[in-house]
Amino acid sequence: QVQLVESGGGLVQAGGSLRLSCAASGGTLSSYVMGWFRQAPGKEREFVAVIKWSGSSTYYADSAKGRFTISGDNAENTVYLQMNSLKPEDTAVYYCAASNRISYGITWYQQGKKYDYWGQGTQVTVSS
């Protein structure tokens, strides 16, 4: 069973950047479809980005397009979320997740219930 640990969150001013990391143990991340989600206080968890290592396809929520980049490093067994031009509305706990079900189209993975393993989350706070 894969275990996921996020890191890289913190406090940043609007317009700044952060890179989140999701390190895995107990499994090889390239065997999964990997997603990033976030949850702001009082709001539902929402999809941010997903990567399928086979074919290197990615997909982003509209709120993330053009500002965030998801990538993976096989050697490090880590998935990253590079976040640029951050806005106060990006403030949330960010979670990475792994899905065993790897045969679907990239847009299928926008729902949290499609994932089997979750990290504990890392807080991102963007000040105005």
| Secondary structure tally, helices | 0
Say what oligomer this is: single chain
Overall form: globular
Radius of gyration: 13 Å
Name the average pLDDT: 95
Biggest pleated sheet: 7 strands, mixed
Roughly how much helix do the residues carry, as a percent range?
under 10%
Query: What string, H for helix and E for strand, traces the elements in order?
Result: EEEEEEEEEEE
Which stretches are low in confidence, meaning pLDDT under 50 for 5 or more residues running?
Answer: none
Distance between the termini: 40 Å
Percentage of β-strand residues: over 45%
Structural class: mainly beta
Count the strands?
11
Task: Provide a descriptive summary of the structure in words.
With about 130 residues, the chain is mainly beta. Helices cover about 0% and strands about 50% of the residues. It has no helices and eleven strands. The strands form two sheets. Strands 2, 4, 5, 6, 9, 10 and 11 form a seven-stranded mixed beta sheet that branches. A four-stranded antiparallel beta sheet has the order 1-3-8-7, with no helix packed on it. The protein starts with a strand and ends with a strand.
Topology of this protein?
Elements: E1 3-7, E2 10-13, E3 18-25, E4 33-39, E5 46-52, E6 57-60, E7 68-73, E8 78-83, E9 92-99, E10 117-118, E11 122-127
Parallel strand pairs: 2-11
Antiparallel strand pairs: 1-3, 3-8, 4-5, 4-9, 5-6, 7-8, 9-10, 9-11
Offer a concise description of the structure:
This protein has strands at about 5, 10-15, 20-25, 35-40, 45-50, 55-60, 70-75, 80-85, 90-100, 115-120, 120-125. With about 130 residues, the protein is mainly beta.
